[in-house]
Each structure stands twice: as structure tokens, then as C-alpha cells.
Amino acid sequence: MPPEMTWVDGHEDRALRGISASGGVAIGPVIVMPDAATDQGRGGGNDESGEQAIAALRQVGLELRASAESLRRLGWEAEAEILDTNRMMSEDPALLETVRGMAIDRPAAAAVLEASERLARELAATGDDLLAARAADVRQLGRRAADRLRGRGLDDVTAGSMLVARELGPADVAELIDRKIGGIALAQGAVTSHAAIMSRALGVPMVVSLGETVLQARDGEQMVVDGDEGVAVVHPSAGTVAASRQLARQQQAQGARLAESRRHPPVTLDGQRVQLLCNVGTLHEIEAGLAGGADGVGLLRTELPFLEATAWPSEAELALALEPLVRRLAGRPATVRILDFGEDKLPPFLPADGARGIALMLGHPDMLRGQLRAILRCASATRLRLLAPMVEHAEQITTLKSLVAGSMRDIGWTSQPVPVGAMVETPRAVSGIGEIASAADFLSIGTNDLVASTLTLDRSQPEAAPLRAAEPAVLRLVARVADAAREASIPLGVCGEAAAEPQLVRLLVGLGVTELSVAPPRLDAVRLAIRSMSAEHASGRAPDTLVASCLDDALAIADDIRG
Amino acid sequence: MTSVVERTVFLPAGVPLHARPAGVLVQAASRYDATITIVAAGKQANAKSILELLALGATGGSSLVISATGTEALSAAEGVVDVITALSATHKET
Question: pLDDT, tens digit, for every residue of A367-395?
Fold first, then answer.
């Protein structure tokens, strides 16, 4: 049976069940993204593939030029020259000629990959170590251009389209976001993928793991992506189309109402100001966060570009990834987290030996110091704070502080000393929280891991929902951290997903949390929660949750906290 | 069509034709309206192609034969010779 048959036979309103990766309902015309794997095997180029390949190389060359300029601004002349050399390679007449020749009977992506491979081999064949390193540069150039070509179907993506694909890489998502797609439906994919994280951060409905059937959708036909239910509806009936449109409109209207509050500061009814920040890892999220009225960034994840890295990123690579992000944060709080490798974020160059967070980085002090220098150089125009992930002992903070001081000397830092904070994510950290609070300049509770480790859940399990932070066992830990922060007179933030739940906002502020850092689409709801509560009432009622008998009782108290 | 202008020049000792000197050479060669080839140890490279220049694998002190054709052949050959002689250890890879 040809694959089309199962599709055409499908009745109206055929619902494909998947897993919700990002909430909300969207309806619109399908655009199927060409599959990289099949695209390569298709064979046969055409008149255009040579020009497409060369245009992709030109684009990579422009990116390299921009990166070289960023490095120069930061005073890294030698590293900038390396990128200049790579840019020269992207324009190289021998490479372009080989690409044209290959493209006669190959698709553009294959032509650029094979051409760069051939030239790389010629360099490697010289037997010179330094030239062999340049061979790797040529290969990487080819891969970057090929990645762009594989994402080429994106040119046809219009605002409001439902994107259908087998799987999406982080680079694809970054491009898609610019095109304001309406929804994403993937045959494979995981809730924890970068694509899913970005979709949630930007509020684009997304369903993953729908199975191969979804790939049979045709460009232009209507599809409903229901990110709340984890369903994609193909061939929607007139009734379903109308109902979905209505639901999407209601969600938009509600979003618009919430956005109204952006004109007002995040202050409680009785005048207590809460610092409202956002969690980010990409420039798009920073833009979304600032547009959503965040004062700045409460958690900037630095490890995301390096999860597939085969070696420790160099100081220059770290700076290149960070500089475009922090450039947008001049004059604002920028809480940059030290590389948080380990567990589910383990790049191929690190052994799976259980080390993670700041403990892992302190085991590689030269790398840590390199990252500190990179951060200091890039972020001098921001109100920079450094955040150590997975802190469990006060000594980790004192050691980190001495490395920060050394890095400041290395680069001749003359501004104010940079505050160094600890992320509190485990019961063990809470048990030593008094010492940690005296060593640190601020604390930030990572509720996702704290909930999972306190209740012994796997954080990828659905049971590890943000609201579980209201379990009395978790709230008691939060209260101990809050007491320690108050005692040490340092700010206390929460940057886990619990901070994005309005019920929990009331409890957290009531327990003494002074900063909330949330994903950009949650800013409006959190601001509204702050503006509709009384801090005095909250601090009177919140301690009752510590002796509540269960989650529901604690949430009932949260509901009871009002103006 | 103008005839071929040929020059022979030695890479300065201790300066192999690595990325930085090759980059300098490409920039210089690209200024001329001429086809410029460089032959080293039997291998030939377009002087405007950094990849071909690198693939020569030319070591410091080795001899290079420059051939130029085209409207600016003479100034191109001499310009390239000047650039190569001026390459110094500061252009070495670190």
C-alpha cells in the first residue's frame, strides 16, 4: 500500500497523538520541511544547486566576518585573524570551482560537503600538523554551508504556518523563530530537545513524537497543532477549524490582556517590589524577555552551544557565543551561569562520571578561569552577576571567588567587583545553606532539580511538574534557604519553573523570595500575580504551608492569599 | 595577450606557508588583474586561492616560482615577490 493511501483514506478530524512539548493551540497551513537525510540521498543536482551552494558559502562567510569583528572588539586579534582565514576559505576560487563541478549531478548540500572534504584531504595530505588543523576548518565550513542548505525549505515558511518535520536541530529553530511560525508538529523529537525548550520560551505550540504519518501532510492543507493536548489534527472538519480558531483567538486575547500589565512595575498591592527577570539561552529569548518587560536576565545558560562539542570550548569560542547575547543587556542585570555540564547535559568530550555543575568545572580550573575571563570581557557593560550551578558546599563558592578575582586581574578589570551567587538545587545544598549564604553574594533556587531530588523523581518524568514545588517537603527547604538569605542579608531568587506558576509566586514571595526569573512567555502572568497579591498577607499565610499535610492543602493556602 | 612573467623567490627561513602568510599573499595577489600561479616542489597553486597555497605545504626557505599572465602580469609578479620576501616571523603561526 503506498503511504499516501493511509493519509488520503484518513477521515476528517484525524487526530494524531503525540507528546506536548509547548502549550497553546494553533491552526494554519502546513509547510513540510525537507528531510536532510533524504535530501542527500536523492541524487541528481540541477542548474540551481551550484548557485545555491555558493550562496550558502557566501552566507557562512558573512557570519564569519561578523564573528571576527566581535572578536576584534573584545581585543582578540589573533583569534579574529583565524576567522578571517576561514572567511577567505569560504570565498576561495578553488573551493567554489569544485563545488560547481560537484553540483552538476548532486544536490547543493552534498556538493558543498564533498567539495570541502576533497580540499580538506589535500591539506591533510601535506602531513603538516598546522595544515591538518586548517583541514578541519574547511570541513567545518562545508558542514555549516550544508546545514544552511538543508534548512532551505524554510524560505517558503510564512507567518502562521504549521511546520511539519521529522526532527529539528537548534539552528533550524533559531531561523524558524524569525519567520514567526504558528505551530510545530514533529514525527520524532523529545520534550527536552533544544527545539522544544525554544518553542516553550517563545510560546509557539509544539507537539513531538507524532510518528511517521504526520510527514505525509501536504503543503498548504490545514492542520491544528494542539500543544495543550499533545495532538495534531489533520484534515480538520469545518467545525474543528472554527473551534480551534476560536480557542487560539481566546488564548491570544488573554495574552493581550496580560501584556497590558507591562506598563506597570512588578509591585505588590502593598508596595513591595519584586525583581522580575527572565531565563534565557539564546538571543531570541532575550528579545522576547525584554519585550515582555523583564528587568534583565536572572539565568543565562552558557552551555547550550557546546552540548555537542568534541573538546573544551576555547575562551574565544565561549566569548563568541556569549557576546551577542550580553550586548543586548547593557545596563541591565545579567546573571551569567557558569557552564553547567553533567547528567543530561554531557558533551562527548566529558566522561559520564557523575560530576556536574560547579564541582565539574572546579575540577578543570584552567577551563573555568578561561570562561570567567570570557564572561568578564563580554559583559562589562551589563550589571553582571556570576551564578554557580549545583553548589553543594560553601568552599565551592570561596574557591570560585578566588578564581574570579584572578580572572579580573588577568584582564585588568577595573569596575565594581562582580557578585558571585550559588544555585541551590539539592537537599544537600540546603543542609549547608548557612555557610553557603555567608560565602555567596546572592542565592538562586533551581526548583526543577530541587523538586526532583527532594521527591526522588526523574526530572524528565511528567510527575516532576512545576506545581510539585508546593509539596510541603519542598517548601520547608525553600523556607530554610530564605531564612539563610535573610540572615546573610543577600538577595534570594528562584529560577526554576515553579517561579512561573502564579499560585507558587504568592507562596515564594511570602516565604521571602525577592527575585523571580521565568521563561519569557510567563512574564506577564507572573507580573499579574505579583500585582494582585499583598506581600504582608502572603508572609503571614505562607508559613502555614510548611506544616500542611499535603500538596493540595498547600495549594489551597496559596489560593487563599489575596490582596 | 601579454606573455608570461616569471620570477623565482625564496620563502624566508623559518616561515612555512601557513594560514597567516598565505592569507597575506592571497590579499596581495587579489589586487591584480592577472592570473598568478605559484609552483613549489612540483605542485602548482593559484595565488588567489588560500586552499591551494596551503596545500603546497611549502616549508620555510623553499623556493617558489611565480608565473603571471594578464594585463597586470609584470606588476603582479613583482608585487607578489615583494610580499613573499617581506614575510617575516611575525606572520608565523603561534
Answer: 999 999 999 999 999 999 999 999 999 99
